[in-house]
Amino acid sequence: MKNQKREYRWSLLLLISLLVFLILVAAVLLAVAGVVLLLNLGVITELTENTADINDLLFFMSVISLIIGMVLTAVLSSVFMGPINRLINLMNRLASGDYSARLTFGRMIQAHPTFREVVDSVNTMAQELESTELLRSDFINNFSHEFKTPIVSIAGFAKLLNRGNLSPEQQKEYLQVIEEESMRLSYMATNVLNLTKVENQTILTDVSEFNLSEQIRSCVLLLESKWAKKDLELQLEFGEHMICANEELLKQVWINLLDNAVKYTPEGHTVQVRISETEDSLSAAVMNTGSEISPEHQKRIFQKFYQADESHAAQGNGVGLAIVKRIVELHKGAVSVTSENEVTVFTVTLPKRSPTNT
């Protein structure tokens, strides 16, 4: 495919070169035709009889060729500048925030594969910018709501505690709510900060060898209060597997995937974790039952700020899976999702040894 695109671009370059050559030929032919016409009219004869110098004739032909060439170039340039002006105008619209702008050329120009490629690439970019802007707006609204809810709860229960006249059981209950809502705020803020951090990171650092199986078991224990509360069955089907990677970053991957699995699994259902190994890579699959993600949502679920749960019934701000994807990419790995028959599986495949550690 890349070779084919390269051939199309070379063909466009040859076409432009051919047009320039034709302009030069046309200019010379028209100049010669003009000289022949002047010879027939007797103008050139008089000139040569008075000057008796053939150099004047050559200079005269050069001037005519130059003028004709400039005129032809100006006409054809206006034709070629049309698409360029359209592209510049579209870029200016995108820069000003009008992400609905789309690029179109005339039928003859757009018939060439290279121009079709330009149109497709620019319009895809505009579509992505428009989608990102919509997601950003939704994120601001949703995130504001997600932050406001626990803050209101904390403030309300704090006021009740401040008034006094509460039984020890009520005090314990209210303090527990305040603690849970505070942790919820902390989790959301940490996720956003983590996303910003990994997005700005281009080189994988702090690579070490550690037990991946033990790390996943620790993450499961960290979330015990959540899955125990829903009476979920946790099935950990793996042996001991070692990996060379950034331990702190990978911990975020498993916490986000397990937290999502617990969040979207109905009470009494199952969450399962499996690890498989090849000669060069490890694959960890986090599976939950009782819920599905539609194919349309699967295409966009790793975009930042995107939430498959449009009702926002479940807590979240749409950055967890974006963090997972970015961290996996930093490790030169891949993450994918499948969801059918009420079973959803997120699979993370990582090289056993980090590229920076080889």
Radius of gyration: 34 Å
CATH class of the largest domain: Alpha Beta
Q: Identify the overall geometry.
A: elongated
Oligomer: single chain
Q: Please, what is the average pLDDT?
A: 77
Structural class: alpha+beta
**What is the CA–CA distance across the termini?**
31 Å
| Main beta-sheet annotation | 5 strands, mixed
Q: Spans of 5+ residues with little confidence (pLDDT < 50)?
A: none
Q: List SSEs in N-to-C order.
A: HHHHHHEHHEEHEEHHEE
The DSSP helix count reads 11
State the CATH architecture of the largest domain.
2-Layer Sandwich
Structure summary, number of beta strands: 7
Report strand order across the widest sheet: 2-4-5-7-6
Query: What is the total number of structural domains?
Result: 3
What share of the residues lie within helices? 55-70%
- How is the CATH topology of the largest domain named? Heat Shock Protein 90
Strand percentage lies at 5-15%
CATH superfamily of the largest domain: Histidine kinase-like ATPase, C-terminal domain
Q: What does it look like?
A:
The protein is an alpha+beta fold and 358 residues long. It has 3 domains: 2-98; 139-200, Helix Hairpins, CATH 1.10.287; 207-357, Histidine kinase-like ATPase, C-terminal domain (Heat Shock Protein 90, 2-Layer Sandwich). Helices cover 64% and strands 13% of the residues. The chain has 11 helices and 7 strands. It has helices at residues 2-41, 43-51, 54-95, 107-110, 113-163, 168-200, 212-222, 224-229, 247-263, 295-300, 320-330; strands spanning 207-211, 233-237, 242-246, 270-277, 281-289, 334-340, 343-351. A 5-stranded mixed sheet has the order 2-4-5-7-6. A two-stranded antiparallel sheet has the order 1-3. Strand 4 (270-277) and strand 5 (281-289) form a beta hairpin. The radius of gyration is 34 Å and the shape is elongated. The two termini are 31 Å apart. The mean pLDDT is 77.
